[in-house]
Amino acid sequence: MTQSRVFCPRCGDPVPDREEPLPGEPRDRDASLCDDCYFEDFALVDAPERIEVAVCGRCGAIQRGKEWRDIGARDYTDVAIDEVTEALGVHVNATEVNWAVEPEQVDETTVRIHAEFSGIVRETLREEQITVSVRIARGTCDRCGRIAGGYYSGIVQVRAADRQLEAAERRRAVEIAESHVAAQEQGGDREAFITEITETDEGPDIKVSTNALGKAVATRIIEEFGGNVESHPTLVTEDEDGNEVYRVTFAVRLPEFRAGDIIDPEDGDGPVLVTGTTGGPRGVRLASGEICDGIHDARKLATRDDSVETTVVTVEDAHAVQVLDPETYESVTIPRPEYFDDSAETTEVLKSQAGLYILPADSWPTGEDRWISSGLTSSYSARRLSCDALATEVRVPSPFSVVFDSIWGKNR
Ligand SMILES: [Zn+2]
Ligand SMILES: [Zn+2]
């Protein structure tokens, strides 16, 4: 038997037997080389010498191709490391690869990345050092460019119907807009932004990047406060494809009355404590304790905070109770509502132009959900009639949805 010897095809030195590749596996052309020849032009790492990267100076987004992407980089060193990591390759035959990286800030816009790699190739530990110079080009991304240019497409005007908007309502409306837009951004929508918030005497004007965003913000505001939205589209221009571009004003009207207001619907049945406002005010009659909704016109008398505590003198019958008038301290007979606790020695009353009435206790359920949870719904629903009977027209809470869908149909 003659011993078969294998020789390096480049230098002719004998090489130890190597495993033949499995059937169907490509034969590596370099696999037959001896170690010296193989390592002669072996590179563990393939990396460019320099990289240029555009970073938005306002938001930190970086440009990849034509697109700007948020990467949440804390500083340019992070950007440089990320870019180098994306750009380099490690030889496929290397195993147990480790690397350590050391950034060096050369000047304001240049970061040199020094990296050390190690890996096992042909059962040999190989080490390699590379240096990549990363130049940061500061730019402005498309979105920041539009924000800076004052671009907006929707404007949400928050106002209150027939009264001044309260400071807390202004704040909350802005908060709703900001948190909604922030959530869109978090979700990766780079087109969602607030361009500007202007506080006018009547209320805030919130300029947003898209009509969809304006609609969503307006809807969220009335979901929380009640009231309604009207939209007024204006044709601004046509885009490059000839599509009509609309700028839309969403006029949000918060309801005239709020929960806790005491109002007089002037229908002869006396004042109502407002408990909810979605789709129009509703509440409870102070004379009877009946639930009342479908209120159209009313006059505000006071708020719950204007009530005072007074002494209960005597319960006369199922419909009347005697209390001390909080101003004159005389005994007066007033209506006894359902919610009146006849074992109480004192009670909350409100004296207004409409007369003297007993208020439900603070702990008494006022919101719809609390009515349900307290089991009061069943006993009250049977008498849910008082103001309904007077209603002659039905108010559509958000007419804009109808108008709007047709406009959007055109835009899409
Ligand atoms: Zn060789
Ligand atoms: Zn930017």
Structure description:
The structure is a single chain. By secondary structure, this protein is α+β, with helices and mostly antiparallel strands. The protein folds into three domains: 42-142; 150-254; 261-390, no CATH class. It has helices at 35-40, 76-87, 142-148, 167-186, 211-225, 368-373, 376-381, 400-411; strands at 6-7, 14-15, 45-46, 50-56, 62-64, 67-69, 89-90, 95-107, 110-121, 124-139, 154-160, 194-199, 204-208, 228-238, 244-254, 261-264, 272-276, 282-285, 291-292, 299-303, 308-317, 320-324, 331-335, 346-352, 355-358. The strands form seven sheets. The chain has a five-stranded mixed β-sheet with strand order 12-13-11-15-14, with helices on one face. The chain has a five-stranded antiparallel β-sheet with strand order 19-18-17-16-20, with no helix packed on it. A hairpin with a 2-residue loop joins β5 and β6 (67-69). The longest helix has 20 residues, at 167-186. The chain binds zinc ion (2 copies). Residues 56, 58-59, 61, 141, 143-144 line the site of one zinc ion.
